[in-house]
Amino acid sequence: MKKKIHVVALLLIVVFILLAVGVYIGTDLKSSILPLDEGWTVSMDGEELGTTSTDLSLRDICKDVKEGDTVILRMTLPETERTEYPAMLFRTRYCAYEIFLEGRLVCRGGYERLGKEKYVGKEYHLISLPEHFGGKEMEIHLMAEAAKDRQMVSDMYLGDYEDLENSFTHRMMLPLTIGAFLVVYGLFFFLVTLVVFVDLREFGVHGFAALLCFSMGVMLHLYLGLDALYMDTSNSTTFGYLAMWMVIPISMQMVYRIPGMLHTSYYRLVEALCDSVMAVTALLHFIGAVHFNDSIGMLFVVGAVSYVLVLLDFAYNRKQGELSSSAHIYLVAVVWCITWLLCSGVYLSMISRGAIRVTPTQSFAGIVGFCIGPMLFGYYMLVNYLFNATNSYAKEREYASLTRLAYSDGLTNLPNRSKLDAYLDQLEEKKMDYCIISMDVNGLKKVNDTYGHVAGDMLLKDFAGVLSEAMESVTEGICGRIGGDEFMIVLDRGGKEDKVLQKIDEGMEALNIKGEHPWTYSVASGSATRNECLKSTMTDIVHATYLLADQRMYEMKREQHGRMNHGQL
Amino acid sequence: MKGNSNRRLAIEILIAILLFVIYLFLYLGISFDAKYAKTVYNLTNENWYIVDTTDLDPEEDLTTSSHVTDNMTTIGLDRGKTIILATKLPNELFVSPCMQFNVAALAVRVYYDGNEIYSYGTEDYEAGRFVGKQCCRISIPAEAVGKNVCIEYRSTRQGKNINHSSTFYGEASDVFKAYLQQRRFPLFAGTFLVIFGLMLIITLPLMSRKSELKIDMIFHGLLLFDSGIYFLSYNNLMQYYVTNNWWLTTMEYLSLFMIPFLVQGTVLFNRYVRQKGMSKFMFFFDLSLPVVTMILHCLGISHMYNFLTIAHVFIILQGAYSLFVMVRQLRYFNRHHGSEDVLQNGERAANAIMIGVNCLTCSSVFDVVFWYVLEKLGYRVVHVVNGVFSIMGSLILVACIVLSYFYHVIANENEKEIRGALEGIAFNDILTQISNRAHCEQVMEELTREQRTCIVISLDLDHLKQVNDNLGHQIGDKMISGFAELLRQVFVMPLLLGRMGGDEFIVILDGDDVARCERLLYQLTDYMNSANAQLTMYSYSASWGYAGSYEVADGHIQKTYMLADERMYRMKEEHHAMDEKLRMEEIKTVAMQEIIKRTEEGEE
Question: For the domain with range A35-168, which CATH number is right: 2.60.120.260, 2.60.40.1120, 3.50.30.80, 3.40.250.10?
Fold first, then answer.
């Protein structure tokens, strides 16, 4: 079953990737979209610094730009078809911007935050342009916030608004859907776990797994800037980084709580260390000293450390082999997830820092990779659920047959002692009046000795048949066999015993008349009700009632013996 | 037990409340970043007037024309009839001004100064094709800002009401963004449902064991997937994923029409549901809706939308039926959950899902009714997110599915305990805690299959009946359990030690070491004697016989047992004979004593 799970998980990933790629490729756009990253003349303080091209990026040109400097990009836009809603899509990174078309201000942003020394993050902007931009001159003014990251604007496209929007969503289809899914999924699971495991001690692995899903979903949307589609907060970058940081402590907590898992003694120590590094980094960000984007290297280091720790624990536990399949699945899921996240996170980071140059396809692949980890994790969690569900369905059948064994007598298929005891306890709990009839089949030993065990069994089975027939009309009550030749009837209230006993007598008479067997069917019985035993000194009223019924049964037996003896003599 | 089920119910109610809170939060959350609400104009009915001609003077004072009131927006237009509305645009200059509104089943033409600046659906209408939903986005030329524009609506369906929904006007990018912003909740919820359902559908067939396909769970997946698609389509979000117009319309209707069928699927294949005949009928009845309409639709005979009312009827019927089934099921569950607590988690899980499915159908029904009420009474749909209750219902369904997950998880985590408990009850004799008859039979069969060489000893406890009759059952029980204990002490690690019946015991030893067997039985006699020395009320005495599996043809253990049993009887008879002899001797002695006494008395 475990192998199957991994196969299925991989299958799902493949399916999703194919879908994403398919959607990306197979979109038919009304008019083409123009990529705009190259061809800008960059200048600062009147001095021309260079022109962007595939080999020379903005980052390279702006090497010497300092904080607070304004960089100006100029370009004459190429001629294109007229569009209904001319628009431009671009991404700004940590800077304020102003866009001019033919000298006219089209839009600006970020200056208020810069002025107040607040953090300006990375954002996608999709803005409308006045009627037609073909052949017109565009000027972009950028004011850098931080000295470090100088790729101040990127992912620039020109075209029809709806086309731009569509191409954006199609390109980001995978993180968009996976992110939305994980956010809702994680939230759901978290809430349900919280409610089901009201006792927080049991909260454990399930709750943190849910939180992890939620955090990763948020991260996917905010870190990749997808919230531009449906939200307008300037804080998304901060929250994106926070969500990314949170992955580490949450996953460590989750691994710690996996049931049955043994941890190295310094697990807690390393965890505390990671948490404190995270706290310090966050503090530095919020006081404005070192922003998240600059300390991202720290995140990878801490991530790697905790990852190694988890791997060590994994290897250790594998050797000991005490993990349940559920725990195993959780562990594998976490390990896979962090692996993918680390690798693709580093890759994406390097791309955005300009450390490596990639084609759009490679960049797309990076984003896809970034989604695989969280998706795998969410999927493994779901698979775990399904595994449990299908497992317990199967177990249920087994339990049903075990229960039959547990609660019915092997020979006669009537309820056995366990069942009768349980039934009586239930009635006693409700403090209802019940009636116990104790019955003893006469002559079993003699039949066993004379005709053998097989005959004895048949005697009992026949009696059981009579008994169940007599009980058919009784809705509130059960009968059963509690021992060798002892049977018991429990009725939910007194008053019906005579009727039942009469039916039993009739049944046995019928058997005797049939005369199939050389023995005679007869039974001794005695009944007692709960009400009669309420005043008993015994604490266990059920037992007292049973004893009374038994006693009466013995009296009848003695009577029967007496009659027989008299008959003999 | 009652307390437990109440707790569960409370939990479920709590979840529902939490969901409602989340929904409110998300819905109200539209305004937490309300930048676009401030920059985009919402041209409500107060701004619109009914005019006669599309050739409208841009500067004309419209207040002399009849105002569009709430009542008038629901004029039922006959097919082909038109109505022209006009407004004066706000005098704010935007970089790229845009006007946006939603229409359904209407052909639209927008005019400025007598010139058509936008058109939708006219060609399709004239060609007799279906005119579906559209989000009309009109680019306003710069000169039209602050002037009159008019919209001509043409009805494409009989009795179509012009639901002139809110018109938004502002900067194009702001208008577009606001559109998606307002649909955040269905975007997330719908995407989630689609993916969750898809995951279930893909995974389940692969995970099922060979014997059983978990059809009911597949239906859950399908229902979620389908609901998700419907919510996305209904809220005009599907166009972000799919661009083909025909598919967009078809998807919306098809997904709606599939809902009663899928709901009934979950009811029918729910293993605890009792009413099978009616359920099967409803299942095929519901299936006819999507199948028939889809065939007609694809053949071009009749567009699916024509069957919308019928579909609503189906939904209501299905809702009523599943509600009925659920109520019956829950009542039965409450009445009959007996002492088999261990099996309840499966039923609880199924119940949870049933409650969830019913929430979905009830909320859908509510939405349907709500929609009709709105149409007929002519109220503007106030908020943009339609199908509010259905989304809530589907999220409750998801919560219930997740809840059922936890029931299963709990069941699995307790599995070892449950199993142990059940096995303890199932396989052990209660009184003596050694194997009971059922287990003995099972073990014997296994040994036969394995062709194991072993020795079977059949033991019978003597005088049990007398003890029961004379001293009572309690003492009798003590005797039995005492004897079993002796057996346990003597026979350490046998293949089997069990109680076949009232006073019959069986021991199976591994191998064919007869000498060892004899030794152990001798030891048993010893133990019994030393126990008897301490006992006053009764004494242990047993008869036994043993046989080896090699003595019997094909090593059949049952037959071996019968052979051992026969030998046990012989020993018993010997005991009886001895007893009789002893008794005879005792009677003789007593009689002699009596005679001697009487003789002595007689002599006096």
Answer: 2.60.120.260
